[in-house]
Amino acid sequence: MLRLLNLELQKLLLNRTSKVLIFISFILPFFIILLSSLKINVFGFFTLELGELGIFNFPIIWHLTTFFASQFKFFFAIVVVSMIGNEYSNKTIKQNLIDGLSKKEFILSKFYAIVFFSLISTVLIGLLSICIGLYYSSYNEFNIIIRETNFLLAYLVKLIGFFSLCLLFGMLAKRSAFALAFIFVLYILEWIFFGLLTWKINMETAEKIQNFFPLKSMYKLIDQPFQRIAMTKFPDKNDLIYDYAVHWHEILIVLVWTTIFIFLSYKLLKKRDL
To answer: Which residues cross the membrane (predicted)?
Structure first.
């Protein structure tokens, strides 16, 4: 495993574009710190400071930071599809196989790199959340601090699942731009299929089925936190209540999709004439 990971890291770090994109994908989530210190002057009457509103309290901070950080995953997605595109355009994929790397090891090297960078991103977001939370949170009890840290696990699984999908589309298209376009097409197709379901069956059942779709299942791992924040400010409004928790069955769905994406990537490479 370490040999394959080291091989992939060497390829990525020797590529200038990949290094820049990796750096950006790790740095951008830290703009959440700027959000926490943001002060908004409301028509000169008063100043609204987000950090003082309680939205960075434990345990909600885990939900907030992982949701916002996951929005920046497209930068590393470009790295994933590029590392496949570069393999084909530079003919390194054929050379690697000639040098003794099996097709299974080739796919695994990409997957190990995905897991590696996803783990680093998760650790960074965890440290960032701890720092912001300890500075702003009104609660410092250990059991409250570690409550809902399962959002970090959801974040990790979400990244691995999404990047594995990018790997599959990269293998399918051989070109970065086309691979990213496939993701957009898949997003459109999921909503078209959902629309057809709502036409045939009731909305509630259609939404339950939609939660099994690849992109939708990844999104469901970390629901939007805005409604939850509103709930803390208006606890008497029952219409704001929704299920924002991380559920194990949602994690399992994404893990199954991840397995399918990696398996299909391998099968595609195995059948393809290089």
So the answer is: 20-40, 60-84, 111-136, 151-170, 177-199, 251-269
